[in-house]
From TrEMBL:
PROSITE patterns: HTH_GNTR. CDD domains: WHTH_GntR. Residues 11-78 form the HTH gntR-type domain. It comes from the Bacteria. This is GntR family transcriptional regulator. The keyword Isomerase does not apply. It comes from Azospirillum thermophilum. SUPFAM superfamilies: GntR ligand-binding domain-like, Winged helix' DNA-binding domain. Keywords: DNA-binding, Transcription, Transcription regulation. GO terms for molecular function: DNA binding; DNA-binding transcription factor activity. Gene3D superfamilies: GntR ligand-binding domain-like, Winged helix-like DNA-binding domain superfamily/Winged helix DNA-binding domain.
Length: 228
C-alpha cells in the first residue's frame, strides 16, 4: 500500500497531527495499546500541547483512540463488528439523504453537485487520494444538505465524522478510487434525473461496498489488530 503523506493545505495544526496519527495507526506504525504521549508528540510536530490535545480528542471521537485510567490516551483495537454496524446504518442514512435530494435539490444545488463530481475526476486520474477524499467529503455533504431535512443531516454528519478515517483509508485499496468515482457517477445521474429510488439504491450500494473493501484493507494491513 502506498505510504503517502496527507495533504496539509488548509488544515489546522490539530488536523495535521490527527491525519499523521491516523496514518500511523492504519499502516501499523502505532499498535493497539500504544500510548499517545502529549509531550513526545509536541516534540515530534514541534508545536504546543494544545493542538495535540485537540487531535487526540478527535481521534477518541472517531474511536481510533481511547482514554484509559492511569494510561491516558492509547490506540484502540480496530473493532471490526462495530465498524461494520456503523457502515450499515450509514448506508441507510445516506441513502435516505439521496432519496430526498433527488426530490428536493434545486437546479443550482444539482449543478454544484455535478461540479464537485467532475472536479474529482482529475484527482482520481492523478491518484491524488488526499485531494480526491476532500472532494469526496464535499460530495457527500452536498447530498446531505440537498435532502433539506435537518434531523437527517445531523445524524448523517455525526456518523460521517465517526467513519471518516475508515472511509479515507479504504481509498488506498487497489482501484478503489476508480470504483468510488463510478459509484458517485451513478448517484449523480439518479439525483439529476430526479429519480429518488435509484438515488437511494445507488448510494446504499456505494456505502455498503466500502464495508467489504475496508475489511479487506485492514486485514491486509494487520489482521492481528482487528477485534471481531
Amino acid at each position: 500500500m502506498p505510504d503517502h503523506q496527507p495533504d496539509r493545505k488548509g488544515a489546522t495544526r490539530a488536523d495535521e497531527v490527527r491525519l499523521a496519527i491516523e496514518e500511523d495507526i492504519f499502516l501499523g506504525r502505532l499498535r493497539p495499546g500504544s500510548r499517545l504521549d502529549e509531550e513526545s508528540l509536541a516534540q515530534r510536530f514541534n508545536i504546543s500541547r494544545t493542538p495535540i490535545r485537540e487531535a487526540i480528542l478527535q481521534l477518541v471521537h472517531a474511536g481510533l483512540v481511547e482514554k484509559q485510567p492511569r494510561h491516558g490516551a492509547v490506540v484502540a483495537p480496530l473493532k471490526l463488528h462495530r465498524m461494520v454496524q456503523m457502515f450499515e446504518v450509514m448506508s441507510e442514512i445516506e441513502g435516505l439523504c439521496c432519496r430526498y435530494a433527488a426530490r428536493r435539490m434545486s437546479e443550482e444545488e444539482k449543478q454544484a453537485l455535478k461540479r464537485i463530481h467532475e472536479e474529482s475526476k482529475a484527482h482520481m486520474r492523478a491518484r491524488d487520494l488526499d485531494a480526491y477524499y476532500a472532494l469526496n467529503r464535499a460530495f457527500h455533504e452536498a447530498l446531505q444538505a440537498g435532502s433539506h431535512n435537518e434531523p437527517l443531516q445531523e445524524i448523517a454528519r455525526s456518523l460521517f465524522v465517526r467513519l471518516a478515517p475508515y472511509r479515507r483509508y479504504q481509498l488506498n485499496h487497489p482501484a478503489r478510487v476508480d470504483d468510488s468515482f463510478v459509484e458517485h457517477d451513478a448517484v449523480v445521474e439518479a439525483v439529476l434525473a430526479g429519480d429518488p429510488e435509484r438515488a437511494y439504491q445507488a448510494m446504499r450500494r456505494h456505502v455498503t461496498i466500502q464495508i467489504d473493501i475496508f475489511t479487506e484493507f485492514v486485514s491486509i494491513m494487520g489482521g492481528d489488530r482487528i477485534q471481531e
